[in-house]
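Notes from the 1:1 (GR / supervisor)

We went over the backlog. Supervisor wanted to see one worked example end to end before approving the batch request, so GR pasted a single chain during the call. The sequence is below; no edits were made to it. Supervisor asked that the structure be written out right there so they could see what the output format looks like.
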Amino acid sequence: MGAITGKEYIKRLNQLNNEIWYDGEKIVGPLSEHPAFKGLIQSKAALYDLQHDPKIKDEMTFISPVSGETIGLSYLQPKTKEDLIRRRKMTEHWARYSGGIMGRSPDYLNTVLTSFASSVTYLKNKENCFPHNLQTFYEYARENDLSFTHTFISPQVNRSQVYIENSVEPIAAKVIGKNDEGIIIKGARLLATQGGLTDEVLVFSVGKLLFNEDEAFAFSIPSNTKGIKFICRDTFIGGPSSFNHPLSSRFEEMDSIVVFDNVLVPWNRVFYYNNVEVSEEFPMESPFLPFAKHQVLVRQIVKTEFVLGIAELLIETINISGYQHIQEKLSEIIIGLETMKALLEKAENNAKLDEWGYMRPEIYPLLVAGNIFPKIYPRFTEIIQLIGASGMITLPTEKAFHSSIRKDLDSYLKGATKTAEERVKIFRLAWDLTMSSFGTRQTQYERYFFGDPIRLASDLYKKYPKDEYVKAIRNFLNLN
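Structure output shown during the call:
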């Protein structure tokens, strides 16, 4: 099949007939027409269409080593630094379509699956591990341009440091049995972004599982597999108007709980199960972190550029660039942007081949970036709020500009350099990014994209090579 179009993505999604629950009701009819999902599905379709844009097709696709067809470049396993740069450009194209707002554009989870397949030999000769299944599935996903959601967070019943679930019925998704056909999963996983809006659900475990061997697994299954249902949160779409809600109407990525009700996972879709050591080590030994963090950093740079553009346009609209406190605030965004760009460049320049022959970007700049962005992004949203001030509150709707009060709006809401309608459109964009329910979800999303910021800082401290710096100080002081 090769790289799909937007039309093919929508057709395939509608045909799946996934079990999705929204506001207490099971969704029936074409998913692409449901008001809670229509905007996002159209936006994702536009991303797939970019793979066929003659101007950038060569930067979005590559030739399959198996079929000879044109396939999505997000499935490319990089073997050179040039390959890394090609992947970066591909991510930039998709990220710029949404201003970096879509955290789960298709390239993210395609990258995750690609990273796992790039270290498939790690699984060889290990108990309850099936490397052939992983390799075969990666190739199938690549050749058919499958879309994915993923879930790895268990329900937060008890977040103490040591918790062993002892309920009669499983709460966290577990292997409760196996037969000739496969393993049986029962329980739930949280926070599947775009859950039910993709071809597949990629399920794997991360972190310390202690004694929970039955929670140590990795597999992928179609989203319409019998026994799977997606329970959605409330929507953050303010309305269908792109004037009133320029971001949420197009890029609201629904989050959901995934419930597994005695779900049979066929053996050919199981990558490993009931192996705590592999479950804890495989994501770390594979290029999962460097590949995924590379993709995320590229998107976050594009998002920072988007934020900077909004902030500067606000300033121009109300003519406040002469104030030094405004200049200082914009400099914060610029410093953040250039810092992230420098970290990306260092990660790519210092990339090296791993033991399996794939080019990994240097991990430490990526870990640093992953610690920086959760701190600076909330500050960026605050800066936009401070620049906009009360102008972020008094925002009429699109309908108001087509009513008898248009003359009043044109007189009293115009900007120094913009008409009233232009000014309101700009301020509504700033509001939707930073103050709407959609915008606050964006802030929380970036805070916790790779997990608890304190844990991320702790991991950086433990992993960062410090010995040479300590040795230099010992030598300076003539210490043993």
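Supervisor's comment: Residues 288-318 form the longest helix (31 residues).
Batch request approved.
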